[in-house]
Amino acid sequence: MTHWRVKLSLLLNYFVFAILLNSVGTVILQVQNNYGVSSSSASVLEAFKDLTIALVSFLVASYITRIGYKRAMLFALALVTLACLLMPQVPAFWTTKLLFAATGASFALIKVSVYATIGLITNDSNQHASFMNFLESFFMIGVLSGYFLFSAFVDDTNPQSTAWLSVYYVLAGIAIIAFILLLSTPINERSVRHEDTKSLVDDLADMFRLAITPVVLVFILSAFVYVLMEQGIMSWLPTFNNKILHLPTSLSIEMASILAASTASGRFLAGVLLGKISWYWLLMICLVVSAGLVLLALPLAASVDGRAVTGWGDAPIAAFIFPLIGLFIAPIYPAINSAILSSLPLRQHGPMAGLIVIFSALGGTTGSIITGHVFETYGGQTAFYFSLVPIVLLLILITAFSRMQKKTGHEVNHTAGLGGH
């Protein structure tokens, strides 16, 4: 049986949320222009998004097999459509917070459902890893599209203009298309449907037991630190381009797309390379090169003279070099996610996906808020030098995770099973 319609539906769902979730960097810049909020105040938008993701994931991760993956995704698409339609109707900072809270809650349902559904439509760990990387690369294509979509609605001649809010009508339209496609796509969930009478408290206890399994605990820390680094860079790159490299607002947003493009390329290439090289050694090489790029690009940013920039052709070289870090950090997240998920039975994929979403969300919030405060207090260059800290931590954590997975991967299925002992 072919699963192409299910895969297409999952990809489109991810595409919609890729644009919305990663528009936070663009929106942080715009609310500073439109609503006069400070950098540290604007940084809370990441928290409205990510803390909601964490909370909803915590509540539904173990219970989602009873709700149904398809039903959960349909509800999420409907909620985010309504939030998008509200944005241009009520232009205010509180509406923006509400949008990201709705997006976060919806994405929690989408990501847990999507990650769990992958196990239903793939036959082995190689297929799982391949589709996971393809899915995550498609997510980054959505991020890339979002930068150009938002910049098309920005009015450089009037920074206070709220014309950019019309972009949310387009996003609502895409969400409606995704809803219709999913509604018409059959998904066979019988193999994971809960038939027991366990309570929500019991389900949460099962997820907690899974979380404290040593190999899962180290994985969770790795995912947390990775997303802390990625979101710290991604959320503040448009502001870095605007405030430090002195690019016009629309160009600052457009050139941030280099990060999304390089990340998408990195995940696509990883999907090819992982068939030929150990995922551990691939990630070690990528992390070392990432650190080198930080040390190369940021001194170049310091030498920018502040001359007027009108387009891509006369943008400083630092605007091109630093975002290439995405090419090398890209394989980390899908590789470690696939490694842990493919070592677990299908019934645990929902709870494990929930843990991934929760700690990724917490990492994203932490990264953006730390970067925002450092940006405001010490400047953009110091804020981006901070990315060297999580790079070093990831070298240590991923090494520990790889060794533990080799030793205990076959035991996880038995010792961390749903229902425990």
How would you describe what is shown here?
This protein is 77% helix and 0% strand. With 421 residues, the chain is mostly helical. It has one domain (4-415): Up-down Bundle (Growth Hormone, Chain: A), CATH 1.20.1250. Helix 11 packs antiparallel against helix 12 and helix 11 runs antiparallel to helix 17. Mean pLDDT is 79; it is low at 410-421.
Summarize the structure.
The protein is mostly helical and 421 residues long. The protein contains 20 helices and no strands. α11 packs antiparallel against α17.
> What name does the CATH topology carry?
Growth Hormone, Chain: A
Question: How many DSSP H or I helices?
Answer: 20
Q: Helix share of residues? A: over 70%
Oligomer: single chain
Mean pLDDT: 79
Strand proportion, as a percent range, falls in: under 5%
CATH homologous superfamily descriptor: MFS general substrate transporter like domains
Number of strands: 0
Structural category: mainly alpha
Which word captures the global form?
globular
Unreliable sequence segments: 410-421
Structural topology:
Elements: H1 4-21, H2 24-35, H3 39-42, H4 44-60, H5 64-67, H6 69-89, H7 93-121, H8 125-152, H9 167-183, H10 200-211, H11 214-243, H12 249-255, H13 257-273, H14 279-302, H15 318-321, H16 325-329, H17 332-341, H18 349-378, H19 380-385, H20 388-415
Helix pairs in contact: 1-7, 1-8, 1-9, 2-11, 4-7, 4-18, 6-7, 6-9, 7-18, 8-12, 8-13, 8-17, 10-18, 11-12, 11-17, 11-18, 11-20, 14-20
